Amino acid sequence: MKEFFVQYIKPILALAVLAFMLWYFSNLVTYIVVATFLSLLGLPLVKRLNNIKFGRRYMPHGVSASITLFTMILIFGLFVLIIVPLIIQQTNVIASINFNSLIDHYQKPMKDLNEFLIQYNVISSGESIANYLQNQLLDILNLTRFTNFFANFVSATGNVFMGTFIILFLTFYFLLDDQLLKNFILTLTPEDHLDNIERILHQSKLLLVRYFQGILLEIVIMMTLESAGLLIFGVPNAVLIGFLGGLMNVIPYLGPIIGATIGVILASLSELSVGNYEHILMTIVTVIAVFAAANVVDNIILQPQIYSKRVKAHPVEVFLVIIVGGKLAGVAGMILAIPTYTIIKVIAREFAQQMKLVKFLTRKM
């Protein structure tokens, strides 16, 4: 009985505890993963800078790490400087919509919709759809909800700044000492498991680097495909829509749907702002078609390379893991599901390789 416990039950309990800790501290795990990813991207530059000589001395490692982090911040800042004006432009587009002209143009469809809603008792016979929408809007914008929204916004802004600071702090020290995280984990490891943990860390690092590189490449390609397609067909604000659409691919499976929805809304608002009411339907169809075509490329070429080959997992396996991640921790859980599952599989193979389920799940690793 004791041998059975040590061989099977103990590894399962250890995995369960690890999974719970990863879920419970999901925000911290996210910061560490992002910082690790950024440090892995920056390490080649650090090594190049370390080889620069000033007379007989090489550049100090701390200076190389600082320059690398500053360079990464600068690249991100330049990226923001390109995107923020597009967002401001889109805001001005929304503000310039002539609602009186819009209502006049859609007066007959609104009247038909109003009669339909009255017929099915959605609104009373003395109301109009315009008044109904106005009342709903006032209800949404009541003082209590606005106060809560403002409080949540302030809280979220504080969390963003705090998260950014934590990520930059961790990234700098990971660049300064690329063995820092590994050494910390090995310090907490019992002597009889040091070899196992070293193998786990090495294999996990290889798989995660390949996965994050693949995700980054997927996002860039999808941004390019969607922006180019929308520009070719003359969709307003194509670059911003393509950027947001590609960025949403960080959320597996659900991301393209969210991106297409955002794209349809932004493109429709742009057409409304210039009074192209007759072109709205064609614009919507165009945006959906471009996103669908890009998604076909993503599903056939990109995702198999990322999910199946890079993390050594079957598409059905990946899909189920993402669903579970979303159920446990929402969107953040879906984003972290694959990296977390990859690490769990590596650990399971190392400590419970005799189990049939573990052999089946790790057969391609």
Summary?
82% of the residues lie in helices and 1% in strands. The chain is an all-alpha fold. The protein has two domains: 1-89, no CATH class; 193-365.
Give the helix/strand layout.
Elements: H1 2-24, H2 26-50, E1 53-54, E2 57-58, H3 61-95, H4 99-105, H5 107-119, H6 129-140, H7 143-176, H8 180-187, H9 194-232, H10 238-247, H11 254-273, H12 280-310, H13 315-351, H14 356-361
Descriptive account of the structure:
By secondary structure, the protein is mainly alpha-helical. The chain has two domains: 1-89, no CATH class; 193-365. Helices cover 82% and strands 1% of the residues. It has 14 helices and two strands. It has helices spanning 2-24, 26-50, 61-95, 99-105, 107-119, 129-140, 143-176, 180-187, 194-232, 238-247, 254-273, 280-310, 315-351, 356-361; strands at 53-54, 57-58. Strands 1-2 form a two-stranded antiparallel sheet. Helix 3 (61-95) crosses helix 11 (254-273) and helix 9 runs antiparallel to helix 13. The protein is globular. The model has no long low-confidence stretch (mean pLDDT 75).
Give the key terms.
single chain, 365 residues, mainly alpha, 2 domains, two-stranded antiparallel sheet, 14 helices, 2 strands, 1% strand
